[in-house]
Amino acid sequence: MDKDLKNNSYNELLDIAIAHQQKPFCAKYLFTFIHQKDAADINDITPLSKTFRNQLTEEGFTISRITLSERHDDPDGTIKFVFDLPGGVRIESVRLKDDDRNTLCISTQAGCRMGCKFCATGRLAFQRNLTTSEIVEQVYQAERVCGRIDNLVYMGMGEPLDNFDNVMRSVETLNDKNGRNLGIRHITISTCGLPEQIKQLALSSIQPRLAVSLHAPNDEIRSKLMRVGKTYRLDDILTSLKSYQSTTGKRITIEYCMIDGVNDQIDHARSLVKLLRPLKVNVNLIELNTFPGCRYRPSSPEQIRQFAEILSNSGIETIIRFKRGRSIKAACGQLGATWLK
Ligand code: SF4
Q1: Which positions are catalytic?
Q2: Is 189 in the pocket of ligand 1 (CB under 6 A)?
């Protein structure tokens, strides 16, 4: 039983209510007030009896919040939020605006263990997993500034599937109709490809969209670019994706960062087509965003166009992702860049 009520799912709040001899509907009040009405204090949940509220407070139950410490605005409408968490930990989230729709890219860990060499977060020391509350709070805080978040991508700092339980609890919480009621088709989890957790995700009762960062057409290049590439071979990742797809029937997004002279050649595109042929996927090609100390350079627009053409001509739906938020170091791979020494 987690004493931070915001870390508990609806069913866990139900257990807390029952353990305190309360009726089941009290769990609904707890959940709705915390996740829909932004209650900051147990005493704000006025439909609960005073006795129950006092009991929870005396037993050390709380409702946590994270602190928004900085906001950075890019002329293209992108906003980067910096949050301070307990223990001197800092994380970042990014709001992207498309017409009147808000997409929020959130973090799941402070630092990251995966060691991708083209990513600023991968250069930071891993500090810890974020709690469920710290994950959902990024959404609640962003909504206070920008209004309703329409799409949510778990693509910020950290590897979401390396913090599986808290991430899945946060998805369940945000999707709950008694909370934010964010449609599951508007939630995407992005992973660098942890085969066991992908299989676990396939069996989950809740099914967000899945994006996989492949970034290379073979193990040799991948393990140079990503430390995790030495642990998980492409064969294992693709097997887990086939199994995921046969269980869920869902299309998968493949993320591929275009790095000059490293993974952007014509034969790389052809090898990628062979790898992806057995799967139902769409591919996002992302021009590398650099940061201080990054040894790689972005592919030229012409190289990206040619690469995209090979994929598209082979029947793979491919889009080239626009650069967003670069001036405030909020683009893909740049989170945490301002903290690099
Ligand atoms: S790209 Fe993702 S998985 Fe790789 S180091 Fe950065 S945050 Fe971690």
Answers
A1: 92, 332
A2: no
Q: Model's pTM, two decimal places? A: 0.95
pLDDT at 186: 98
For Cα atoms 27, 1, 56, give the angle at the middle one, nearest 5 degrees: 60
Q: Which of 216, 7, 227, 23 lies closest to 129 in space, CA to CA?
A: 7
CATH number for the domain whose boundaries are 67-339: 3.20.20.70
| 5-58: in CATH 3.20.20.30 | no
Q: Tell whether ligand 1 has an atom less than 6 A from the beta carbon of residue 158.
A: yes
- Residue 341 is predicted with a pLDDT of 63
The domains of the chain are located at: 5-58, 67-339
Q: What are the backbone angles phi and psi of residue 225, rounded to the nearest 5°?
A: -85, -30
DSSP state of 182: -
Q: CA 156 to CA 91: how far, in whole Å? A: 9
Measure the CA–CA gap between 257 and 284, rounded to whole angstroms: 8
Span from the CA of 279 to the centroid of ligand 1 (angstroms): 23
Q: How far is CA 229 from CA 135, 195, 236, 251, in A?
A: 26, 12, 11, 23
Lookup: tokens for 12: 């866990």
* End-to-end Cα spacing for the chain: 39
